[in-house]
Sequence to fold (375 residues):
Amino acid sequence: MNSRLTSIIRKEFIQIFRDVRTLAMILVIPIVQLFLLGYSATSDVRNIPLAVLDQSRSPESRALLDAYRAADYFRIAFQVDSEAEIERLIASGVARAAVIIPPDYAQRLSEGNAQVAFILDGSDPTSASTALSAAQLISQAHAIDLLTETFARTGMSLRVQQPVTVHTTVWYNPDMVSAHFMIPGVIGMILYAIAAILTATPVVRERERGTIEQLIVTPIRPWELVVGKLMPYVFLGFFNIIEVLAVGHWWFGMPIRGDFGLILLTSGIFLVTGLGIGLFASTIANTQQEAMLTVWLTLLPSIFLSGFFFPLEAMPKILQWISYLIPLRYYLFIIRSLLLKGVGLADIQTQFLLMTLFAAGIMTAAATRFHKRLD
Fold:
């Protein structure tokens, strides 16, 4: 190795160790990835919220529900009185599955041909697939238990036909196509990437080149500079929303069941969140590299803790609690509900309000800090 190459390598190491914040982020990001992937990269879904419509209300129906309760795949969260309540609970996302026990369940069970209905929310194929398999296994195990009890009580030979069968129905995404689940998530990630990354780097680039000082001495006001910097990315963000929706609908067959104006409104509010994060990153970074690393440091938790790849129900409780601080969690719930379920604002009002508060808070903090740094 010649002396010139050695000098260049030594110089690069000196620059890296001089930039303490960048060095710290370089060292922290792999650890963050390790923990997030180690705990969140699982599709083993547990405690799926289950709504129950027990029209039989018999000891036999309670025994069936006890079988579902004993398995930790489901958590009986709601006891309802009508199918309309089931539709409302699944549409709003608070229940992910429902079981309907008919009034004549006990009688048909004694005859050996009882049937129950099991409804799944197919907007999340990962959770739906797990719930579907679990429901079938639980029903089969319960049927075998009933046959065993009958055999022990009567001493008769076991019948081939099972006394209980479960007919499953998947709503919103009957074929459980993963693309219909992933495309709305891609919209969220594109909005975040364009808004945060591309907003942070141009501001820092102006500072690196010294041109931001030239802008400061002009009659341009600070808020005009902020708006002027952000507006191009607002247009790019909306263009990408329409582009992804068009390709997803016409090429992948993804349904667009919700109001298009509401889709654009909620996407615009989330776009403000990304712009605020990017602007805030530009106020604490001195170089473009540092700005990129700062945004990526916030992007990693957003990817893994928002339900983009992995179901939130499969994560440890501590990560589920942390996910409430991730704005992308609320947007993904909203955009998937609008596109796949066709819900209205009333069904997403909690997530809509929290996302709006995040957007207002981060943009206010970023604009205030940016204004002070210009002064």
Q: What stands out?
A: Residues 210 and 344 are 49 Å apart (CA to CA). The mean pLDDT is 78. The first helix runs from residue 3 to 18.
